[in-house]
Every structure is written in C-alpha cells, then in structure tokens.
Design a protein that fits this description.
CATH topology of chain B: TIM Barrel
Number of strands of chain B: 8
Largest interface: A-B, 29 and 31 residues
Order of helices and strands of chain A: HHH
Largest sheet of chain A: none
Number of domains of chain A: 2
Distance between the termini of chain B: 14 Å
Order of helices and strands of chain B: EHEHEHEHEHEHEHEHH
CATH superfamily of chain B: Metal-dependent hydrolases
Largest sheet of chain B: 8 strands, parallel
Distance between the termini of chain A: 42 Å
Number of helices of chain A: 3
Number of domains of chain B: 1
Oligomer: heterodimer
Number of helices of chain B: 9
Strand content of chain B: 5-15%
C-alpha cells in the first residue's frame, strides 16, 4: 500500500498545475463566441466523476466520453476520433 | 535497466531513436504493421511495406545491436475497402515464413464499422489457420470501450483462438478489466496526450497486478516518445516499485508472451 504523503509529495504540484489548466480552459471556452458543443457537454459531465468520492474516477471519466452503444456502425466516414461521442445521429 | 520495446513503429523513427533506445537498455524491438498516415493506393504498397518490415528494418535495428521482430496485417484504418483488404490478406502468407515475423497484427478496429469487423474476422481466421500469435489494436478515445468489447467477442467466438496467445493493446482504465478477465494479455501504450500516461499505467499495475501485461511506447510518426518505457520504469522506481517487479513488466513479460512464437529468441534468457 502506497504512503499518502509520498504520493502527494510526488504528484501534488503536477496535479495542481493540471487542475488550474482545466479551470483556465473552461474560462477560455466561456469567453469564446459560439453555441453548445457535444465535446464540452461531455467534458462537463466527466467532471462530475471527480467529486463522486468513489474509486475508479479515471474509468468513469473515460466512460463519460465513450460511445455507449454496442453494435458496429454502418460504415466509417472518418478515420479520426475526436475524444467525445457525438451521439448516434452524428457518429 | 533492461527492457523490450514490444510495440514500436520503427520505420517512422530515425536512427537516433534506435541509438537512444539501445543506450537506455532496450534489448529487442517488436514492430506491428501500421497505417502510414495516408491510405496506400494498392496492394503493391503493402508488398513493399512488408518487405521493409521483414528485410530492411531488421538490418537497420541490427546496426544498434537490437533484434527486430514484426507483425503483419492491413490496419483497421484501411479496412473500409474490402477489395483491397482481401488483396493484402492474400499476400501475407508469403511473408509469414520470414524469420522475424511473430504473428498477425496490429489488427482490430478503428471506428467500429461493419467492414472493419469483417476484415478483423478474416485476420483472426488467418492467424488461427497458421497458428500465429495475435496483436490487437483497440480504437481511439470515444470508440475504445465499444471496440474493445466487439474485438473480445470476435476473438472468443472463434474456438481456435487461445486468449493467452493474443495481446489486446492500448488498454486504459475502462477496458483493462474486461481484457484480463477474459484471459487475454493487455498492453498499455504510453502516450503524452492520448492512451495512457506513465502514472496511469503504474496505477493500473497497482490495481490489476503485473501478470499478462506489458507497457509500450507505440512510437510512430505522430506525437509519441520512443523512450516512454524506460521513463515509466524510472517513474515506477520513484514510486517505490521493487526492481524485480519493474523488470518483470518491462522485460520478462514481453519475453513470456512473444516466446510463444518459435521465432522469438529471448535476449538473455529469464
């Protein structure tokens, strides 16, 4: 079992910097012009996993961005993934 | 430190990378067939690529004292074109006898389409018919969970496939459990932005143990770090991992899996 103080000694400053980066990213999105975007909707949904107080937050964040369906799509119209599921009508 | 790079697209890298890897303790490299970053226009393009993987690249690696192994396939990114896929599948057996070929890979899915599934099933049949190991690419980002499930189901539906002879690569926190629970090997790809960071990979090792799992850099022509594995090993050390456990994950485990192919020779033995 890892020592909590040691984990914080190793990773607190790095995590703190990433958290501030996320906050600044959200401020940047808010300042920008434009409408809703499925990627940002997924992002905000994923943030809820951080405050759940339950284990496997990383897994839950990944699932928040994931395609929840189980059947193959008709055809691939692009090679790239964008990081968030756009919904069945846009996949 | 000694390690195996079990998944590196070395044709995309410079000789400086080979030199740095050798100096960091790399003992062997394994290179799955990959998408070139653009679609090849004909089967002849794949023929030349397979010649590069089986003839030219082993010579380049040998200049730095590194044994070079490879895997053959048409990548799922090029699997929408069924006619081309069939043509490529038809020439793979010609290269299977090459002394550095360990199996079929990296096969799998990209966008989880019907044609990708058809080509995946043909690759699985090709591997099973020729008693080849399988190295699987799982999809990116939002497509990974679904694609990993589809791939595992396709492998399990072929009774000739033994899970311990298949590695499912690019696992993350939401897919590693399903892979290991089904008896397959799992690969963690260490990328700066997508896939898995070193810290998350070490977390996964702490949660799931160090059996049937390896780490790789998957260094290619995109944003990737050829020294990602030794860097992760250094992070394991910083976190207090036992040197023997580090050696198991980055050296012994790749040897254990790849030694299931008679073409693989352990660099120093276990």
């Amino acid at each position: 079992m890892a020592d909590r103080k040691n984990i914080l000694d190793l990773y607190f400053l790095d995590a703190r910097a990433r958290l501030i980066d996320i906050a600044a990213f959200m401020d940047r999105v808010d300042r920008a012009n434009g409408g809703d975007d499925f990627r940002y909707d997924a992002f905000r949904a994923a943030l809820k996993a951080l405050e759940s107080g339950k284990p496997d937050r990383a897994g839950k964040v990944l699932l928040a961005f994931s395609d929840p369906t189980d059947e193959p799509i008709l055809a691939a119209t692009t090679k790239a993934a964008c990081g968030a599921w756009p919904g069945a009508d846009n996949a | 430190m000694r390690y195996i790079e079990p998944h590196g697209h070395m044709v995309s890298r410079t000789t400086d990378d080979y030199q740095a890897m050798a100096m960091a303790g790399c003992q062997a490299v394994s290179e799955p067939a990959f998408w070139a970053g653009f679609d090849r226009s004909s089967v002849q393009g794949f023929y030349d690529y397979f010649c590069q993987l089986t003839q030219h690249e082993p010579r380049r690696a040998a200049m730095f004292g590194l044994p070079h192994y490879t895997w053959l396939c048409i990548n799922p990114k090029e699997s929408e074109d069924l006619k081309l896929a069939d043509e490529v599948l038809a020439i793979i057996p010609e290269f299977m006898g090459s002394p550095n070929v360990l199996g079929i890979g990296e096969i799998g899915l990209n966008k989880n389409s019907r044609n990708e599934m058809l080509v995946l099933e043909k690759h699985i049949d090709l591997a099973a018919s020729n008693d080849q190991l399988i190295l699987v690419h799982t999809p990116h980002l939002e497509d990974k969970r679904k694609g990993t499930r589809l791939i595992l189901d396709a492998l399990k539906s072929d009774s000739r496939i033994r899970p311990e002879r298949c590695i499912i690569d690019h696992v993350e926190e939401h897919t590693v459990g399903m892979v290991l629970d089904d008896g397959f090997w799992a690969g963690m790809t260490l990328y700066p932005e997508t896939k898995c960071t070193s810290n998350r990979a070490i977390d996964i090792l702490e949660l799931y143990g160090n059996e049937r799992i390896w780490m790789n850099s998957a260094c290619d022509w995109g944003i990737s770090v050829p020294l990602a594995v030794p860097r992760a090993a250094q992070e394991m050390k910083r976190r207090g991992s036992d040197p023997g456990q580090i050696d198991k994950v980055i050296y012994q485990n790749p040897i254990e899996f790849m030694s299931q192919s008679p073409r693989f020779t352990a660099p120093e033995g276990l």
